[in-house]
Amino acid sequence: MQHFEHPQTVLLPAHVRLKAQAYAVNYADSGQVSPKVRGDHLTGKLGEEAVRLVYQSFGVAVDGPDYQIYSRAKKSWAADLTVSETALHVKTQTTKAALLYGLSWMFQDAATRSDATLTQAEDWVSFVLLDEDNLRARVFPPQQISNLRFAQPMLEHLRGKKQVVYAREQRWFRQEWAAL
Known about the structure:
Elements: E1 8-11, H1 14-26, H2 35-57, E2 62-63, E3 81-83, E4 86-94, H3 95-101, E5 104-108, E6 124-131, E7 136-139, E8 143-144, E9 162-166, H4 174-179
Helix pairs in contact: 1-2
């Protein structure tokens, strides 16, 4: 996969936020109406847009993000973007959540619903830290799933339902930690 070696910071244009907000609000049609879920959809879509903008700034072809609304039963586990014909998943955490829980990204891993990415060792994922108040995103270089160390969530009620990638536990992140 063509990728960059150092984190990139990108400012998201206001029109991108508006598009992502409309998506999050419209997601209520799928039956997922809580403010938490709506916020998660907004955060995720802004992260996808940030990654798209970074790759496009390097002149790399990007397909996505997907703005189709899926029902809960038909949730797509497909990659969020296609970068130079390579599937790329995107995981985003807000700066507010990072202050509470540490810089980390969650993957669904429950008996009834599990992120297919977890079983695809060769898949690529890009991690994003999103300052939602200032529309600023820090996009970290993509990593293969096989290179990630997964852990249980800090929060007890999420254990057995999620797996977490804590930045501090990742070999690839050690040099970046000091820069933050």
